[in-house]
Design goal:
single chain, 6 strands, 60s Ribosomal Protein L30, Chain: A, 127 residues, 6-stranded mixed beta sheet, alpha+beta, 28% helix
Length: 127
């Protein structure tokens, strides 16, 4: 099976400079790179804002690949502060309302940029 690199408009510099795709689609499976709370206006100071941006980015990458959040079967969420899981979960509930994907939560000491507090990676399967 051929793999298709998924890089929505506006992510070209990430592909070029950081040398990774936002997602890779193989057959009906999409592996989405970790999405963070980095947006067009920078990085919000709060976990809710960062979580919302990360999930909006995830949604955008999936759409570019021909999928949606309802196709997500698993997520891995990286937190720099495990005490913020509840706040992040409240935002996640806005995006995943039912048929919840499998989920793994991992505490880490740092992410790619010091201001980042959350990163969300996902696997989706288009039915």
């Amino acid at each position: 099976m051929a793999k298709e690199l998924i890089n929505p408009p506006g992510t070209e510099e990430i592909y070029k400079n950081w040398k990774f795709s936002q997602a890779v689609k193989v057959g009906n499976t999409i592996h989405v790179s970790g999405q963070t709370g980095f947006g067009p206006d920078g990085i919000p100071d709060d976990i809710e804002g960062q979580t919302r941006l990360a999930l909006q980015s995830l949604e955008r990458v999936l759409k570019e690949a021909g999928a949606s959040l309802s196709d997500v079967v698993a997520t891995t969420v990286y937190h720099t502060d495990m005490g913020e899981i509840g706040k992040a979960q409240s935002v996640r509930d806005e995006f995943f309302k039912e048929n919840y994907p499998a989920n793994t939560i991992v505490g880490v000491t740092a992410l790619a940029l010091p201001q980042l507090r959350i990163e969300i990676q996902a696997v989706a399967i288009i039915a």
